[in-house]
Amino acid sequence: MPHSLRSKDAYYSRLSLRAASIGLISPHRHNLLACRLTTQPQQAAPPTTMGTGSTLQLIRSTLAAARSVTVLTGAGISADSGVPTFRGADGLWRQYRAEDLATPEAFERDPRLVWEWYNWRRELIATKRPNPAHDAVASMERRFEHFWLITQNVDGLHRDAGSRRLSEIHGNIWKVRCTDCRCIVENRDVPIAILPLCQSCGGLLRPHIVWFGESLAAEDLEKSAAALQSSDVCLIVGTSGLVYPAAGFGAIAKQAGACIVEINIDSTPRSNLADATLQGRARDLVPLLLEA
Ligand code: OAD
Predict the structure, then answer these.
(1) Can you give the CATH number for the domain in which 202 is found?
(2) The pTM is what?
(3) What is the distance between the alpha carbons of residues 19 and 97, in angstroms, rounded to a whole number?
(4) Which atom of ligand 1 is found nearest the CA of 88?
(5) pLDDT tens profile 23-34
(6) Partner residues linked to 166 by β-bridges
(7) Which of 84, 95, 111, 189 is the most exposed place for a label (fewest CB within 10 A)?
């Protein structure tokens, strides 16, 4: 791995930790959740090491017997729709500095720059459609009585695929929030007028996105915790497992007794938590889980 990539990884880890210490994307908050849900940390079971076919059969039979399923998704599931990830070879945080674009301080310093970046992302995402992995997750919602989708993605593609029982824990790029009156409204303008103003009070609008150092909505955390705590199966798709609290969600489900299934093109720091891993593209693998 080239040195520049290593050092950017180190930069990101520092950023993540700093944000955690400020209090929000945080191991800290995860610990609070985990303390409520567990009494003692458990030893992670080794991932299933059978061939993909056998692993798939095992996952299908586990799903067939499951009453309650929680799915956690990250940028990898939308990568198959053409939305760039954050930390892959062409990831956004390899090209841009998160602290210049995705922090409340950045917005305070230069709201125009931040809006220009979000306009660029809106323009890109507006051309993308859900892929078979998004569709399969939407089908799961119809198949399982107790189902919850937790997504870190802000692109809205899960909603476009028909998912309704979901928490978009990092916000949604198609919503804006007033920095004065705090009202949240949908806005699908592409491009959005810079600088956009609130129609109710005239205040400056910002993207309804959770930035580094900010708190996730309490309602999202509560719904996510409840779903994770009661899952028989927790499916983790296309996330690097580096950003808290989502990075700790698999552990919460595991400690509550769920079978953890990870789908990713790569291994992640959370792979050792998984009872079964499928390595490959989300668009190829997630639909296979539902086949008889
Ligand atoms: P990352 O970019 O950190 O990780 C994407 C993950 O998807 C990696 O583990 C890849 O190996 C995997 N991946 C890539 N393509 C895939 C494919 N076709 N099929 C399956 N897996 C694939 O994205 P996230 O984990 O989502 O936060 O990042 C978490 C948060 O960090 C984001 O929500 C964002 C970012 O900063 C905010 O914007 C607040």
Answers:
(1) 3.30.1600.10
(2) 0.85
(3) 14
(4) 2
(5) 223 333 333 332
(6) 149
(7) 95
Domain holding 56, by residue range, is 45-79+130-169+216-290
Task: Using the mean position of ligand 1's atoms as its centre, give its distance from the Cα of residue 264 in Å.
Answer: 9
Residue 133 Cα: closest atom of ligand 1: 19
Closest CA to 151 of 136, 122, 172: 172
Q: What is the CA radius of gyration of the chain?
A: 19
Residue type, 128: K
Pocket test for ligand 1, best of 80, 87, 214 (most atoms within 8 A of CB): 87
- The four Cα atoms 197, 199, 200, 204 give a dihedral, to 10 degrees, of -10
- Annotated catalytic sites, by residue? 170
What confidence tens digit (pLDDT) does each residue in 51-80 have?
A: 577 899 999 999 999 999 999 999 999 999
Do 279 and 194 belong together in one domain? no
Tokens of 81: 């729709």
Q: How far apart are the first and last CA of the chain?
A: 41
